[in-house]
Inverse folding.
């Protein structure tokens, strides 16, 4: 128990060093190469990303958007777990749903030539297509959809409700499915027979 508490205290103290390492790893407009970093696991940090995209540290929301953006650049997913990674340390964090929220999108073109470009709550921009698919999970009890778009390196954004409603307005039916075109790919949302 004492050893576990000591390790947690060390990890808490390292939040500041994570910030410094992230700042030095981030170059102007470029994401750090977290896919190349494989440091030893240092323990879990009391950091959580809520379903609405709010980041918490020690139970308190992180109020500085630039700090949240900085931490988001060193986020890495391995299996079903999430970590903040620098060249020398790796700490686990909790993600309630997806690490990002797609808060807006822009549609250009029409039909199969349409391109959907999403912006996340931390400033990432992703273009839906073969490499960045859109997927929809449905709650088994309520049938409520939870739509996601891939952002980078296995990290997804939950598409917020207002954006999803706008997407539904520009959807179409293909092969008995209602869905969306982007980047030459058709992303299924719901069987056409289930449309109201």
């Amino acid at each position: 128990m004492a050893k576990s508490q000591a390790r947690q205290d060390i990890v808490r103290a390292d939040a500041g060093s994570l910030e410094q390492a992230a700042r030095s790893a981030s170059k102007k407009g470029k994401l750090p190469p977290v896919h190349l970093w494989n440091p030893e696991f240092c323990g879990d940090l009391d950091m959580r990303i809520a379903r609405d995209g709010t980041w918490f540290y020690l139970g308190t929301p992180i109020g500085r958007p630039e700090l949240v953006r900085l931490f988001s650049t060193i986020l890495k997913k391995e299996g079903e777990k999430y970590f903040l990674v620098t060249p020398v340390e790796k700490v686990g964090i909790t993600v309630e749903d997806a690490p990002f929220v797609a808060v807006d999108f822009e549609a250009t073109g029409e039909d199969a030539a349409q391109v959907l470009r999403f912006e996340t709550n931390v400033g990432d921009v992703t273009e839906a297509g073969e490499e960045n698919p859109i997927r929809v999970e449905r709650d088994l009890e309520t049938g409520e959809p939870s739509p996601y778009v891939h952002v980078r390196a296995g990290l997804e954004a939950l598409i917020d409700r207002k954006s999803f409603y706008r997407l539904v307005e520009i959807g179409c039916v293909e092969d008995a499915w209602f869905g969306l075109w982007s980047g030459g790919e058709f992303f299924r949302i719901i069987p056409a027979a289930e449309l109201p």
Remarks:
- The chain has a mean pLDDT of 88.
- The helical segments are 2-25, 65-72, 161-169.
- The chain has three helices and 15 strands.
